[in-house]
Design a protein that fits this description.
Helix 2 (39-54) packs parallel to helix 4. The chain has helices spanning 3-36, 39-54, 100-109, 179-189; strands at 68-69, 72-76, 86-92, 118-120, 129-136, 139-151, 154-160, 163-167, 174-175, 197-205, 213-224, 230-235, 241-246. It has 248 residues and is an alpha+beta fold. The protein has four helices and 13 strands.
């Protein structure tokens, strides 16, 4: 028996085995690190624990995207902004379940200017008032609204706000915080036990003062189904909470 050759084969076998085991260990460690450093996974788990401890109900369709956004500066268009509702010359029926394209065609035919700039918001629509919000890109500007007033099954009046976005401010574009992180802060520090969250939406928010200029920053809007129509805003960069406000 050639012991020298057998010894060489044995050594090579051990080296090959060590390489295979080392690769498996590296792969396992890599997967573990990826899991541990995933902010979304950790945030979801923490949110689930807080929700369970406070008996909070959350919607199943929480957004997952965390885009990069900037603050914006807008100015109200005086010609298209109305302080109070105005009657429509030809009242019409409105079905909130119709498609966005059909709804925009309907509003345009009714004589509402810039109708295609808005998107219907079912979370704020109630008691015969249908609320739309002007869009900036893919996101609503929550305070810039078009409201349809229904009476006797027909839309007979509307009230409109419309802005021109002047700039995206001086701040740098940055990634918004996860909605799970926003909800965790809100639930843990602001919501009473047993609350029902009915909606979570990303958009632009800024208080309206006695000025034509409106400064708006990315915010997570959280609507609460407590019968009071409460709405919270969570700053999408800092996590600061504002609210509750009543649905308008």
């Amino acid at each position: 028996m050639d012991w020298g050759r057998a010894k060489t084969i044995l050594i090579l076998s051990f080296l090959l085995l060590n390489m295979v085991l080392g690769f498996q260990l590296w792969s396992s460690r890599s997967d573990l690190l990826n899991f541990d450093t995933s902010p979304s996974g950790a945030a979801i788990e923490e949110l689930q624990q807080i929700v369970k401890s406070k008996n909070i109900q959350v919607p199943a369709d929480i957004p997952k995207d965390t885009p990069k956004l900037k603050e914006i500066v807008a100015r109200f268009d005086e010609k298209l902004t109305m302080p109070k509702p105005a009657p429509l010359p030809a009242p019409f029926r409105f079905d909130p379940l119709i498609s966005r394209g059909t709804a925009m065609d309907l509003l345009t035919r009714a004589g509402i200017p810039k109708a295609d700039s808005y998107q219907f918001d079912p979370a704020l629509s109630m008691n015969g008032t249908y609320v739309f919000e002007q869009m900036y890109g893919a996101f609503p500007m929550f305070e810039v609204q078009l409201k349809l007033q229904e009476k006797g099954g027909l839309i007979g009046a509307y009230q409109q706000g419309f802005v021109q976005v002047l700039s995206e401010g001086d701040s740098k574009e940055q990634k918004v915080i996860s909605p799970y992180t926003a909800l965790q802060n809100l639930i843990e520090n602001y919501l009473p036990a047993g609350s029902v969250i009915t909606g979570v939406k990303l958009g632009y928010h800024g208080p309206i003062y006695n000025s034509q200029t409106l400064n708006m920053w990315p915010s997570w809007r959280v609507t609460i189904g407590n019968g009071n129509g409460d709405v919270y805003f969570v700053h999408a960069f800092t996590g600061a909470v504002e609210g509750p406000q009543k649905k308008q």
